[in-house]
Structure formats: structure tokens, C-alpha cells
Amino acid sequence: MSKILVTGGCGFIGSHTIVDLLDNGFEVINIDSNIRSNVGALAGIKAITGVEVPHYKVDLCDLSATRQVFEEHPDIDGIVHFAAFKAVGESVLHPLLYYKNNINSLANILECVQEFDVSHFIFSSSCSIYGNTDELPVTESTPMLKAESPYAHTKQIGEQMIESLSTVCPATGFVALRYFNPAGAHPSTLIGEASFAAPTNLVPVITETASGKREKMMVFGDDYNTRDGSCIRDYIYIMDLANAHTKALQYLQDQKNQKNFEVFNLGIGEGATVFEAINAFEKATGLSLNYEVAPRRPGDVEAIYSNYIYASKTLNWTPKGSMEDIMRTAWQWEQNRPEWSFKAG
Q1: Cβ neighbours of residue 7 under 8 Å, at least 6 residues apart?
Q2: Cβ atoms of 31 and 56 closer than 8 Å
Q3: 345: closest CA among 12, 10, 17?
Q4: What is the pLDDT of residues 40-53, one digit of tens each?
Q5: How far apart, in Å, are the Cα atoms of 214 and each of 20, 182, 204, 211, 291?
Q6: Neighbour count for residue 227 (Cβ, 10 Å)
Q7: Nearest alpha carbon to residue 268 among 227, 311, 297, 228
Q8: What is the pLDDT of residue 201?
Q9: pLDDT value at position 218?
């Protein structure tokens, strides 16, 4: 049983990935500052898996505290690095906050990778690294254009940092997973997407509107050059995304990688507009949403969706969840959210 360090494991993607890692026989320890997450997610993980995951409340921007975890666990075989700030709109308003947190934390964890000879490293990247591309669907070879937000720029810089380090750490396998739009919840709905501030991701905005937490939702722009004027995104079921991290680790452990830094797109290969996502929720739940069209939001890309064939062939990974699965589980989670999911800490 190899030991995997997950950073940001109390967050949305991190918590679901921990469940998948445990289900596939990995031992997991977790680092999370809980600045924007809640340790209660680990109780949800325990309820699902029966495993109590060791937790270190550490800010990765603190190199000394981060190193102490590696000193206590010299047998860490791999790292899955999620910990980062992720709100596009906030990054536009507070760019230095994002550069300081996302870049410094990554630099520190990579320093520990090098110092402690960690064999495998999985980086939580993003489709936002492609910018406002005209090439659809995007492939791993689609050029990176100018980032539309400081958040996206930190992901571009992060991949460049990892690629540079990979040239001097030939014994470490590095993978960057470029997510599209994860959504939904674990089938048990014991964990899900916990937004402590007002959420900006579409699916939790939809479920909060349906539950009455917000009077109405805004559709930011209906004048884009798309089939109905609203932005197009590629929505992937959270448990499919989680499983891709497990597959990427197994791929590196089995030494199947041809290079020691590789990138993979993770989506479902289709795009849904905002209006189509609203319709999918209404169809899955039988509810009607109150929404209003608003001006375009700074930092938003017009349309982006994936070509995931490389991940499918190389990692033996296939997304299975449908838009209906996403909306159904997200709505069940919203209706049954535990108290811990409403506050960070």
C-alpha cells in the first residue's frame, strides 16, 4: 500500500479524490490550511470509506511547516496537489492574492518533492490555461493563449514550474491534469461542493437558486457567438474526475509514462451552454429556476470543451457520469448539506 499525500483534501475535488484513492487501496494523508475548506469533509470521507485520514492543518506557503510533514512521513510515494485559490472573479479583483498563494504554495511543495525524492506528482491544472481559444475541442497540444484571469495565469505558471523541475528530477514522474468543469456530488451525498462564500461555479449557483438561498441567478451574457448566446463549458461528473487522479498515479507507478512530465485533458468531450445546463437541472428535478440575463463577467472564456482521447487511451480512463447524474447528485447534496459545509475551518 503506497502512501499518497493529498494537499487541499478537504476541498471539493480533493475530498472526492481521497475517497477514490482509498477505494483503490492507497494510504492517504492530508494537508489543508482549511482557510477555504472545512475539516468536516474528512468526517464525510470516514462515513463513506470507514477510514480516518490523518490531517495536517498546514498552510503550504509556510515551507517549514510543510517540510515537517515530509519529515514525519519519509515514505510518501506520491503527491496529489489540489491546494489553491480558484475563484476566477476574485482573482481578477485581487490578483496578488492569487499569485502569492498559488505560486508560493506550489514552489514549496515542489521543493519538498525534490528534497525528499518523492516519486510521483499529480498537479491540479485547468482548462483555463488555454485562454480564449478558437480551437474546439481543445487537445493537449492546443497552444496556451493569454490567460483570461490571474487564476488561469497561476495554472499556466504552475505547469511551467513543474516542467522546469522535471528536467532536473528525472526520477520523479509528473502529471498535470487539465480539468474542465467538475460538478455533482458523491452518490452518498455525504460530501459535495461546499461553497462558503457566494459560489461562482454554475452548478452550485443553480442549486442554491432552486433551494431559495438566492432569489435568482444571473446568466452572464447572452450575446456570445454560441448556439444560444451563453457561454459553453464541458461539465464532468466529480467522481469521474476523482478517478482520473487514481489512474494517473497508477500510470506513473507502473512506469508507463514515456516522459517524466505529461499533461492530460479531463472532460467529457461535449459542451453545454448555461441555458442548456439550466434546462438539464429543470428536467432532472422537475423544478423551475428563476434567472436573469446580466452583462458579461470579466475573465470568462466564451466557449471551451475537451478532447479527452489521450487520457482515455493512455490512462484507461473513461468518464461515465451524465449531466443528469451531475444535477441529481448536486441537488441531493444541496438539500442535505451538513452544518460543517457552510463555513471554513
Answers
A1: 14, 30, 31, 32, 60, 79, 80, 81, 82, 83, 105, 109
A2: yes
A3: 10
A4: 999 999 999 999 99
A5: 32, 22, 11, 8, 10
A6: 12
A7: 311
A8: 86
A9: 94
Q: 98, 130, 151, 305: which is the annotated catalytic residue?
A: 151
- Residue holding cell 475573465? 299
d(CA 41, CA 38): 6
Which residues share a beta bridge with 55? 30
Per the annotation, the verdict on 151 as an active-site residue is yes
* CA dist., res. 282 & res. 286, Å (int): 5
- Centre a 10 Å sphere on the Cβ of residue 310 and count the other Cβ atoms it contains: 16
At residue 96, what is the residue type?
L
Q: Which of 74, 325, 12, 59 is closest to 199 using CA atoms?
A: 12
Please state, as a whole number, how many other Cβ atoms lie within 10 Å of the Cβ of residue 187. Answer: 13
Tens of pLDDT along 192-251?
998 777 787 899 999 999 999 999 999 999 999 999 999 999 999 999 999 999 999 999
This prediction's pTM: 0.94
Residues of the chain where predicted confidence (pLDDT) is lower than 50: none
Question: What pLDDT is attached to residue 301?
Answer: 83
d(CA 129, CA 127): 5
SS (H, E, C) the chain: CCEEEEECCCCHHHHHHHHHHHHCCCEEEEECCCCCCCCHHHHHHHHHHCCCCCEECCCCCCHHHHHHHHHHCCCEEEEEECCCCCCHHHHHHCHHHHHHHHHHHHHHHHHHHHHCCCCEEEEEEEHHHHCCCCCCCECCCCCCCCCCCHHHHHHHHHHHHHHHHHCCCCCCEEEEEEECEEECCCCCCCCCCCCCCCCCCHHHHHHHHHHCCCCCEEEECCCCCCCCCCCEECEEEHHHHHHHHHHHHHHHHCCCCCCCEEEEEECCCCCEEHHHHHHHHHHHHCCCCCEEEECCCCCCCCECCECCHHHHHHHCCCCCCCHHHHHHHHHHHHHCCCHHHHCCC
